[in-house]
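Protein in question reproduced for absentees:

***
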Amino acid sequence: DNDDDDDIPQLSSHTLAALQEFYLEQQQRECMKTSQGFNQYSIGSIEEDWQLSQFWYSDETALCLAKEAVLAAGKGGRIACISAPSVYQKLKELDGEDFSVCILEYDRRFSVYGEEFIFFDYNHPLDLPENLLPHSFDIVIADPPYLSEECLQKTAETIKYLTKGKILLCTGAVMKEQAAKHLGVKMCKFIPEHSRNLANEFRCYVNYASGLD
């Protein structure tokens, strides 16, 4: 007997469509929330731009460097990532921990990260926003975009301006002497890897007792 169905109020197709759309949006929002750490911040969510000399670290390297930074920064520490977006993205995935982080980057695509993004051009090392106070970061992680002494020297000005002391530099093995000269950092045993193999041997340098040896 189908008469019973008649008592059920029927929604107009228009209302039904609107309702479906609402639920879909809600679902998408929930998905965004749960996958945000995963999607927006996962390495590769922004593609490498080789014209800007960008090369992302492998997942393992980014995680290792991010964990080192959190340890070095200490509880409630502040971490600055200069031209090291894959470490920044990993730090955001570790979000439960007690620290804050900024990304200084020439590539404006990273402005999707909102207030944590600071436009940075190594040619103007101290052209920084006023609210970025000197010596206000517990550790600065930097990966200068080019293997040249000029690029290292200029980036070093920014690093020294921002850090309270600790520096974690990632650059080519060929930059060992310049790194010591401009930043007083020594090569670690840890060998960073990239998601694509680079022609130049890459190394990490620090000026404090790190967990990277």
The mean pLDDT is 85. The first strand starts at residue 77 and ends at 82. The radius of gyration is 23 Å. The chain has five helices and seven strands.
